[in-house]
Amino acid sequence: MMDQATIYAMAAVIVFCFALWGLISYAHLIRKIMALNIMGSAVFLFFGAMTRRGEPETTDPVPQAMVITGIVVAVAATAFAISLAKAIHRRTGQLRLPEERDA
């Protein structure tokens, strides 16, 4: 029988894979930013699941500190990505990346 940490870790991997698929398949910039945020949340969930190891009642504080730091970095990266998306929208009038052209 699987323990709770294993179930959370498996859920994190599944969510990460769906978000990666969304990041690759959609051309809309806001959807890409949302997919990146979901991927980050999946990594945070995975780290949270990995804090439960060893003794059943003890937790490892290092992954928890990494998650807290990661949340701050994710917020800053999201703000930066949204500002880049706004700049692209202002310049091109659309929220999609320009298509690559064959040379």
What does this structure look like?
The structure is a single chain. The chain has 103 residues and is mainly α. 74% of the residues lie in helices and 0% in strands. It starts with a helix and ends in an 11-residue tail after the last helix. InterPro entries: CPA3_antiporter_subunitC (IPR050601), NUOK/Mnh_C1-like (IPR039428).
Tags for this model:
103 residues; mainly alpha
Q: Whole-number radius of gyration?
A: 18 Å
Return the structural class: mainly alpha
Quick one: how many beta strands? 0
User: Strand content of the residues, in percent?
Assistant: under 5%
Spell the H/E element sequence.
HHH
Distance between the termini: 56 Å
- Overall mean pLDDT score? 87
Number of helices: 3
Shape annotation = elongated
Percent in helix: over 70%
Summarize the structure.
By secondary structure, the chain is an all-alpha fold.
SSE inventory with pairings:
Elements: H1 4-25, H2 29-50, H3 61-92
Helix pairs in contact: 1-2, 2-3
